[in-house]
Design a protein that fits this description.
The protein has 647 residues and is of the alpha/beta class. It has two domains: 5-240, no CATH class; 255-342 and 354-640, Alkaline Phosphatase, subunit A, CATH 3.40.720.10. Helix content is 40%, strand content 12%. The protein is built from 20 helices and 17 strands. It has helices at 15-40, 50-71, 73-80, 89-120, 126-131, 138-148, 150-167, 180-203, 228-231, 234-240, 255-261, 309-315, 331-340, 362-368, 386-392, 401-404, 418-429, 466-484, 544-551, 618-640, and strands spanning 5-7, 10-13, 170-172, 265-268, 278-284, 323-325, 372-377, 397-399, 436-441, 493-499, 521-525, 538-540, 556-559, 574-577, 581-585, 588-592, 597-602. The strands form five sheets. The protein has a six-stranded mixed sheet, sandwiched between helices. It has a four-stranded antiparallel sheet with strand order 14-15-16-17, covered by helices on one side. Strands 1-2-3 form a three-stranded mixed sheet. Helix 15 links the parallel strand 7 (372-377) and strand 8 (397-399). The protein is globular and about 95 Å long. The model has no long low-confidence stretch (mean pLDDT 89).
C-alpha cells in the first residue's frame, strides 16, 4: 500500500508518485498563469461568463497537460528508467535541474505572452522566433521589455520560485530492494504503461482516429474565436509549431466549381493608354485606425480629434473607404499583402515554404513597364527579413540604416527616427530616374513608444503610450510631403498610405474582431481630384496592388486576393485571420473555424459584436460561408500547387 509521510513540510513518496506530483506542480502554474494572462489583458476578452470559463478551463487542461508532458519528456524518461541508480543523490540532482530548466523556460515564454499577445492577438508560435531572427541587438529589445514591463518580470520570477519551492516539498523515498524479482518486473511493467499515458496525454486522448491536438482544437472550448488564446498556453504553441506542417489542399468544392464561386485570377482591362505615374507606398508602423481622427468623427460624442492632424487633412482630399483593414497582425504579414496581394493565413506567408513560389508582385509588374524599384526601411539592414523578401519580389534597391549611415539619428533600438529618415527618403527619390516605384516602412511608432528628446512633451500623450509616437510620425509625414511637394515628380505620383497592422487600442469599439484589424488605406494624387470618387465600401491591404494597377490603366492578368477600389463592384469583401478566418462583406462579419461558422455579426450597427446572428440569418450566413470556403480553398491550394503566377 502506498504510504505518504510528512516531515518538516516535506512529502515523502515513492519515485512514481513524486513524478506525478512534479508534473502537477507545473500544471498548477499554467493554470494560475491563465488567469494572470486574462487579468493583464481583460479588455481583449469582454463578456466572458462563468459557463464560458468552465469550458475554457476544461479545454485549457488538455493543452496544459500536453505542454507539461512535452516540456518534461527528458525528466519523465530519467525518472522511470527501471534501475535502482535513480535514487542516488547525484542522479536526483540531475533530474531536479532538468525539471527546473525546462519548466522555467516554459514559464518564461508564457509570461512574455502576457504582453506580446496585445500586439498579435495570438499566442506566440515559432514564427515569432523566425520573425525576429534577423534583428540586431536582440539583447536591447529584451532589456527594454524587462524595464518597461517590470511587473511581468516579477510575476515570472515569482512563478519560477513557486515551482522550485513546491518541487522541494517532495522528497523521494528510497526503496529497500529486498525482493529484486518484485522490484525489477514492477518497474519494467510500469515503464511502457507510463509511456502509453504520456502519448495519450500529448495526443489529447487515446482514440486511434484522433490526431495529436493542435491549436485549432482550442476552438471547441470557446464561444467566439477571440477567446482561443485563453484556452491555449504559449509553450504548447511554440512546441507544436517547431516542425510545423503547413497547408494542405482543401476539398470544400470540386476544382471547376470553386472557380465559379471565387477566383483570385483577374484580367485587368483598360481602354486607356498606360499611365506611367510614379508610385510611392508609405507603410506606417502600428498605425491602427483608432488613432486617426478622420475615421472616428463619432467617438467621444463627436469631440475626438485623434493624433494625426496632417494625415487627417490628407485623407480628406484622397480616396479611402468607410471601412479599411489589414490582412494580418504582424509586420511580416503586411509586406506580402501590400506588395504581392497575398494575405497572411494561419501562418505568415514569408515564413512558409511557399515564399519561394513563383509570384508576380507589384514591383515586378511595374519593372516590366520600365519602373525603377526601391524599398526604404530605417532599421538595421536585414531587419525582419525585409531585405530578403523585397529582393525575391523584384525590388532593385534596398535602403536601410547602413545606407543612411548616420548613427546620430538612431533611436537606439529599432532604427533611424522617422523624421530624418523620411527626409532621406524624399531626397533619395529625387535622384531616381522616373517612373519609379518605391516603398517606405516607418519605425518610430513602436514599443517602447519614445520620441526624440527634443520632442518630449510636444505631442499629446493621449490615452495610450503609442499616441505621442503617432503624433511624431504624423509630423514626419507632414515634413516629408512639404519637401517632396517642391520636387518635379510630385505632381505625377500616386501615393498610397497604409499601416502594417493595428495595435493596442483604448476604445471598446476597437477591441473587437473588426477593430483589431482596422487600419488606414489611403490613395492620394496631388493632380487628380477625381480620385476622391472611388468606390467607398471597404478595402484591405490586398486591394492595394490591383488598385494601383487599375489606376495606372494597366491591362493584363494578375493573381490577387484583393480587388481594385477604382472598379465599382458588389464583390468587394475583406478576409483576414485572427484565431480563425473571418470575412467582412456589406454590413456583416462572419467568423469561420475551418469547418463551420462560429459567428455572424452586423458589425456596422453592432460595433461591439454582442449579438451573434449565425442562427438568425441562415441565408446570409450560408452565402458568406460559401464565399469564404472558396477563398480559403483557392488560397491554400494555389500555395501548395505553386499557382500564384498568372497563367
Amino acid at each position: 500500500m502506498m504510504k505518504l509521510q510528512f516531515s518538516k513540510w516535506k512529502l515523502s513518496v515513492n519515485i512514481y508518485l513524486a513524478l506525478a506530483l512534479s508534473l502537477l506542480i507545473m500544471m498548477f502554474i499554467l493554470f494560475i498563469s491563465r488567469f494572470i494572462f486574462y487579468w493583464l489583458n481583460m479588455e481583449y476578452f469582454p463578456g466572458i461568463s462563468f459557463s464560458d470559463w468552465l469550458r475554457i478551463i476544461r479545454g485549457g487542461f488538455r493543452f496544459d497537460l500536453a505542454a507539461v508532458l512535452y516540456l518534461n519528456l527528458l525528466f519523465i524518461f530519467l525518472m522511470i528508467l527501471p534501475f535502482p541508480f535513480r535514487h542516488i543523490p547525484w542522479y536526483q540532482r540531475i533530474t531536479k535541474w532538468v525539471f527546473y530548466i525546462m519548466n522555467s523556460l516554459g514559464i518564461v515564454v508564457n509570461c512574455i505572452d502576457f504582453i506580446y499577445f496585445r500586439f498579435t492577438l495570438r499566442r506566440s508560435t515559432t514564427d515569432v522566433l523566425k520573425e525576429f531572427s534577423h534583428e540586431k541587438g536582440k539583447g536591447n529589445f529584451l532589456f527594454t521589455f524587462m524595464i518597461d514591463y517590470w511587473y511581468v518580470v516579477i510575476i515570472c520570477a515569482a512563478l519560477i520560485a513557486l515551482l522550485v519551492f513546491l518541487y522541494n516539498r517532495i522528497q523521494i523515498r528510497k526503496p529497500e530492494i529486498i525482493k529484486p524479482w518484485v522490484y525489477y518486473p514492477t518497474c519494467i511493467v510500469l515503464f511502457p504503461v507510463i509511456i502509453v499515458g504520456l502519448v495519450g496525454g500529448i495526443r489529447g486522448d487515446f482514440k486511434y482516429s484522433t490526431r495529436p491536438i493542435t491549436m485549432s482544437n482550442a476552438g471547441e472550448y470557446v464561444s467566439v474565436p477571440g477567446e482561443i488564446p485563453l484556452v491555449l498556453n504559449t509553450p504548447f504553441c511554440l512546441i507544436r509549431t517547431i516542425r510545423q506542417t503547413f497547408y494542405h489542399k482543401e476539398k470544400y468544392f470540386a476544382e471547376d466549381a470553386v472557380e465559379n464561386i471565387y477566383t483570385p485570377v483577374q484580367q485587368l482591362v483598360s481602354d486607356k493608354p498606360f499611365r506611367p505615374d510614379n508610385v510611392v507606398i508609405i507603410i506606417l508602423e502600428s498605425y491602427g485606425r483608432e488613432g486617426i481622427g478622420y475615421y472616428n468623427k463619432d467617438l467621444k460624442n463627436g469631440t475626438y480629434k485623434g493624433y494625426t492632424p496632417f494625415l487627417d487633412s490628407l485623407i480628406a482630399v484622397s480616396a479611402t473607404c468607410e471601412n479599411t483593414f489589414a490582412n494580418g497582425r504582424k509586420s511580416i504579414d503586411a509586406m506580402p499583402s501590400i506588395l504581392t496581394s497575398i494575405p497572411a493565413g494561419e501562418n505568415p506567408f514569408v515564413l512558409t515554404p511557399y515564399a519561394s513560389n513563383r509570384i508576380k508582385s507589384l514591383p515586378m509588374i511595374l519593372k516590366e513597364k520600365g519602373y525603377q524599384t526601391s524599398f526604404f526601411h530605417g532599421a538595421p539592414n536585414g531587419s525582419m527579413g525585409f531585405k530578403a523578401f523585397v529582393n525575391l519580389i523584384g525590388v532593385d534597391k534596398y535602403f536601410g540604416k547602413d545606407e543612411y549611415n548616420n548613427n546620430a539619428d538612431f533611436d537606439g533600438l529599432w532604427g533611424i527616427w522617422d523624421e530624418p529618415f523620411f527626409q532621406y527618403f524624399a531626397h533619395t527619390l529625387d535622384t531616381i530616374r522616373q517612373p519609379f516605384f518605391s516603398t517606405i516602412f516607418s519605425v518610430s511608432s513602436h514599443h517602447p513608444y519614445k520620441v526624440p528628446e527634443k520632442y518630449k512633451g510636444v505631442f499629446p500623450k493621449g490615452d495610450l503610450p503609442i499616441h505621442q509616437c503617432m503624433g511624431y510620425t504624423d509630423m514626419a509625414l507632414r515634413k516629408f510631403f512639404k519637401t517632396v511637394s517642391t520636387m518635379s515628380w510630385f505632381k505625377h505620383t500616386l501615393f498610397v498610405i497604409t499601416a502594417d497592422h493595428a495595435t493596442i487600442s483604448h476604445f471598446p469599439e476597437y477591441q473587437t474582431a473588426w477593430g483589431y484589424m482596422s487600419i488606414p488605406v489611403v490613395f492620394y494624387h496631388a493632380e487628380d481630384t477625381l480620385l476622391r470618387n472611388a468606390e467607398k465600401t471597404m478595402s484591405q491591404q490586398t486591394d492595394i496592388m490591383p488598385s494601383v494597377l487599375s489606376y495606372l490603366n494597366y491591362s493584363g492578368k494578375i493573381v490577387s486576393f484583393g480587388k481594385s477600389i477604382f472598379t465599382p463592384s458588389n464583390e468587394h469583401f475583406v478576409v483576414n485571420y485572427i484565431n480563425g478566418f473571418q470575412l467582412l462583406k456589406d454590413n456583416y462579419l462572419l467568423q469561420f473555424d475551418g469547418q463551420k461558422t462560429s459567428g455572424l455579426y452586423d458589425y456596422t450597427h453592432d460595433r461591439l459584436l454582442k449579438t451573434n446572428l449565425k442562427d438568425k440569418l441562415p441565408v446570409i450566413r450560408d452565402s458568406l460561408e460559401l464565399k469564404l470556403k472558396a477563398y480559403i480553398q483557392q488560397y491554400h491550394n494555389r500555395l501548395v500547387e505553386d499557382k500564384m503566377w498568372p497563367g
